[in-house]
Amino acid sequence: MVKEVLDQRELQFEFAKRYFEDFISKRSYMIPYLKPQETPTLLMDTEGIKERYEEMRKHMPNFKIYYAVKANDDINVIKALAERGSGFEVASSEELSKVMSLKVEPERVISSNPVKPEEFIDYAYSVGVNRFSVDSFTEVDKIAKIARRARVYVRLVVPNEGSDWPLSKKFGVDVDTALDILEYARERGLVPYGITFHVGSQCNNYRNWFIAIRKSAELWEKARSKGFKLQMLNMGGGIPVKYTYEALRIEDIAYYIKGLLQKFFPNPPYELQIEPGRGLVGDQGIMVAKVIGKAKRNGENWLYIDTGVFNGLAEALGGIRYPIYLDREGELKEWTIGGVSCDSMDVIAKMVALPEPEVGDYLYILSTGAYTTVYASNFNGFPKPKVICL
Ligand SMILES: Cc1ncc(COP(=O)(O)O)c(C=O)c1O
């Protein structure tokens, strides 16, 4: 029994160690940045992001890629993708102005959050962005008032089972309501343009894509029989990256989706889109933090570090588990890793297998390229992670 527990720890630590070593060996230019003065620091690999983009293009050649800026809005991340010709999905005026500051044409920008502030719609339309998602009659009214000839695509609700970060409760409608919304949009002078869905972020369940594409085909056909000429199918995000387990590969997801499209769309949509966030940047970042304290409480080993759920690692609260590595040898113990703030919610992970650290040691948190800095606050006066794009 004791041996079994030890093996689990070894496995976990070996996984993180190998992940760290592989990551750095492919990016030797990161070595000088691994012991920064200032922590927490997020090191982002822009070449790696470009490679992920090219990998997606290679396996999904019929899809136009719109990077979901919410995942990581660092200007150098956006720039790397803009240089490769990526499109962008934005939700706010600030995201949009960052993209526009790089002279990206508005035709390369869409907005897929189904509920948008009026000021944002106004700004986006005024600079030439004219594709917006909707999933309510109220949103159609808002867009029709502000962006009179905009194109709208309707968001379907689809299963998010097996996705580590589900998104389906908040947005999306069933097929018949979606059809009513498209009809209403047409009556209000908007251009019914297409369909979108999101299978949930970090999706490791092919079935979500299966049901989503089948539902989209049902709506497509119903819309066609009512005289709509929809052009576009947008498959949202969901492409997973490696955390403490290996995720589905882009290549395999692409192959599966291709088969589904052949099966359910005998006449393929004129335009296919995906809007990955995590899948492009998630495993291209490594957060460097420092150990600031240790304690034993009720038999539990606690380790405190200088970042936390309020300044970068918010997804830990929703169940994202990051691989964590410490460059030391010795007997592995299980640690509960507490964040820097005084809030007891600020716990990054439990049962993390690590050798005994010392205060001042560097800790490496892998797969922190997406949904980290964008969530960070200055709670308790602690700094947001510094970002270095290499
Ligand atoms: C509308 C929309 N599109 C795309 C994304 C990106 O999803 P992911 O990071 O899973 O690729 C999100 C994530 O929240 C989203 O809400």
Automatic annotation (TrEMBL):
Protein keywords: Lyase, Pyridoxal phosphate
Annotated Gene Ontology cellular component terms: cytoplasm
Any Pfam family hit: Orn_Arg_deC_N
Single Gene Ontology BP annotation: putrescine biosynthetic process from arginine, via ornithine
All residue ranges annotated as the Orn/DAP/Arg decarboxylase 2 N-terminal domain in the record: 49-281
Residues bearing the modification N6-(pyridoxal phosphate)lysine: K70
CDD domains xref list: PLPDE_III_ODC
Lyase keyword on record: yes
InterPro entries linked to this entry: Ala_racemase/Decarboxylase_C, De-COase2_N, De-COase2_pyr-phos_BS, Orn/DAP/Arg_de-COase, Orn_de-COase, PLP-binding_barrel
Pathway in which the depicted protein is active: Amine and polyamine biosynthesis; putrescine biosynthesis via L-ornithine pathway; putrescine from L-ornithine: step 1/1
Cofactor(s) listed: pyridoxal 5'-phosphate
Reaction(s) this enzyme catalyzes, per UniProt: L-ornithine + H(+) = putrescine + CO2
UniProt entry tagged with the keyword DNA repair: no
Molecular function in Gene Ontology: ornithine decarboxylase activity
Coiled coil segments of this chain: none
EC number: 4.1.1.17
Active site per UniProt: C342 (proton donor)
PANTHER family in the record: ARGININE/DIAMINOPIMELATE/ORNITHINE DECARBOXYLASE, ORNITHINE DECARBOXYLASE 1-RELATED
Protein name in UniProt: ornithine decarboxylase
Organism: Hydrogenobacter hydrogenophilus
Lineage: Bacteria, Pseudomonadati, Aquificota, Aquificia, Aquificales
